[in-house]
Design a protein that fits this description.
Layout: E1 6-13, E2 16-27, E3 32-36, H1 41-56, H2 58-61, E4 71-75, H3 89-101, E5 109-111, E6 114-115, E7 121-122, H4 127-136, E8 141-145, H5 157-162, E9 164-168, H6 171-178
Parallel strand pairs: 3-4, 5-8, 8-9
Antiparallel strand pairs: 1-2, 2-4, 6-7
Amino acid sequence: TDVPGVATGLAVTGAGGDVLFIEATAMDGEPGLTLTGQLGDVMKESARIALSYVEAHADELGIDPTAMTKRYHVHVPAGAIPKDGPSAGVAMLTALVSLLTGRKVKDTVGMTGEITLQGKVLPIGGVKQKVLAAHRAGLKEVIVPRRNEADLDDVPEKVRDEMAFTIADNAGDVLEAALQA
């Protein structure tokens, strides 16, 4: 995450939790969205929703509206592992906003949650596995949806004591916690 446009998402795989680096870039060309990285339909939908939210809220996010005339590419690298499920929306949103504002994402933060067109953060599954993966990866803070706050009780106390948690209701909560000043 040492450049704008990269966010750390958290996922559940067959082997438990995992960390995914979500990358976003922009280029000249026909406006639109390209998605790569063995993404299933739900993750593709999440990326489209994230871009639509950014387009609708560009002004309040501090994004030049002319930037929305570019072509965007969102990539979730992780080899040939298929990835699907409703939990990467906030990371995709954060990667896009980071790219378009030039603000880097904090390298100590991982996030999980789905985003709506209105910017609400929706609950997801696998909180325990995702937090454990974040801890193993050396992350210090995890952003989780408000409706998953009770799921943090399932995380071992030793891990909870070593990490900070941001409980997010909306896109603003996520971006405030994730982006560098």
